[in-house]
Amino acid sequence: MNIFNDHKKLYLTAGLLFLMLTIFTVILPALQNQKNNAPLPGVEPLSGDVMEGKLIYIGEGCVGCHSQQVRNIEMDKMFGSRPGIAADYAHITRTSFWQNTATLMGTERTGPDLTDIGNRQPSKDWHLMHLYNPRSVVKQSIMPSYAWLFETKENPTKADVVVNVPAEFRNGQTGKVIATKKALQLLAYIQSLKQAPLPTAIKPMDFLYKETAEELGGASTTTASKPGAAADPELLQGKTLYTANCQSCHQFNGEGLAGAFPSLKGSKVVTGDNLQLYVDIIMNGYDANDEYGVMAAVGKNMKFNEKQVAAIINYERSSWGNKGKKVSAEEVKKIMDSIKDK
């Protein structure tokens, strides 16, 4: 064949063949993959402060202990409403022109997964206290303190964001703890981590190994707050919901943190007769006064139904020495219907 005797034709033919193979085996499948896994509807590009917070998150090595991937196994269900899919990561682009894309999915969970932490823990005060000294809100935490993201002022201005850190975690420092711009940017990024809902036409993957997870979890959830409580499934559900959504602020013993989160032990709201106020606080949050941080709308964010709210109330009313009247899901539903547009 003449082509093998003419180096120009040989190289041209080989180059064209290589180009065609590249188009059909690499470029077209990649474009199709991008089309099939485009960012989910409603996902917005990161704002300036959120992007800066992401860079701080990367720079501080948070990915070494926290993942951002919900696997399709039942034990991961606490981290998100559904398993993660490729489209969840389609919006992640290069860190900069000179830096490649930062992989934030992680490979280890020394700390909890953060995929949906913006919904799971929306409290600004909690996150700032956690960054300043993790032991202030999670006693057993081994996370390092990021106190250098804060400063101390004797007379903060109205523009300053004051963090109500209990005195025992201040190492003898006086004055008010103030969150710096970097701390607020990191907070903005953490609070932006919310699992986007799937379009109605797309069915999420199922969580696998449900029976195994329930068997593993059974032993850990049978410990109730008082003798005989293990026989009450509603109290067990209430304790599970409290542990997952309330304990990080109000603590396992219901005593909260002085100067940060109010105590539920002996609380007039918990044991009193104003059920509408109680349900309203759980669903829509509460800003009591300057003494405590603002409570986020936990119930609304987590889409609690009347049975879940009733279970939490009944658990709190029968724990830590509290003796409140038991409520029914029907009573709670009437109140939820009346405040749902608040």
Short description:
With 342 residues, this protein is mostly helical. 40% of the residues lie in helices and 3% in strands.
For the structure shown, list the relevant keywords:
342 residues; mainly alpha; 13 helices; 3 strands; globular
Note the gap between the termini: 82 Å
Strands in their spatial order, largest beta sheet: 1-3-2
How many E-type strands?
Answer: 3
Roughly how much helix do the residues carry, as a percent range? 40-55%
**Sheet/helix structural class:** mainly alpha
Strand composition percent = under 5%
| Helix/strand order, N-terminal first | HHHHEEEHHHHHHHHH
Please work out how many helical segments DSSP would assign: 13
Low-confidence stretches: 212-230
Q: How many strands, what sense, and barrel or not for the largest sheet?
A: 3 strands, antiparallel
Average pLDDT reading: 85
Radius of gyration: 25 Å
